[in-house]
Amino acid sequence: MQTFVQERDGELLIVTADGGLDRDTANQLIDDVGRHVDAGARAIIVDCSKLAVISSAGLGTLLRLHGAMKARGAQVRLAGLQGLVAQALHLTRLDTIFELFPDVNSARLAFRPRN
């Protein structure tokens, strides 16, 4: 899996997960996001629309990412989950921990302050 920062706008960080998320790529994601949170990002969207495969280690990674970023004062939301990846989150009930959105724009709007 490759992760790359698609966009950084102040406190908002959008990270794209491409390919698969497994034990070998888990730390890369946490390290990449952690560096941006240390630099001030507080709203993280992981764009999963290109994520084709996720292993049990990958699911654990998302859970670790959620916990680590929450401890640093940041929120993680997932967007664009499809197919087997979406089913895996539902079966493991991780969809009760993460806020899930159909696309990045919906997740971005959910981070806007409500008046």
Can you summarize the main beta sheet? 5 strands, mixed
- SSE-based structural type: alpha/beta
CATH architecture annotation name: 2-Layer Sandwich
Annotation, overall tally of beta strands? 5
- End-to-end separation in angstroms reads 38 Å
CATH superfamily heading: STAS domain
> From N to C, what is the helix and strand string?
EEHEHEHEH
**What is Rg?**
13 Å
Shape: globular
Ranges where pLDDT stays below 50 over 5 or more residues in a row are none
The overall average pLDDT, rounded, is: 86
Strand content: 25-35%
Which fold does the CATH topology refer to?
Transcription Regulator spoIIAA
* Portion in helices: 40-55%
Number of helices: 4
Provide a short characterization of the protein structure:
The protein is α/β, with parallel strands linked by helices and 115 residues long. It has helices at residues 23-38, 56-71, 83-91, 104-110; strands spanning 2-9, 12-21, 43-54, 75-79, 99-101. Helix 1 (23-38) runs parallel beside helix 2 (56-71).
Keywords:
115 residues, alpha/beta, Transcription Regulator spoIIAA, 33% strand, globular
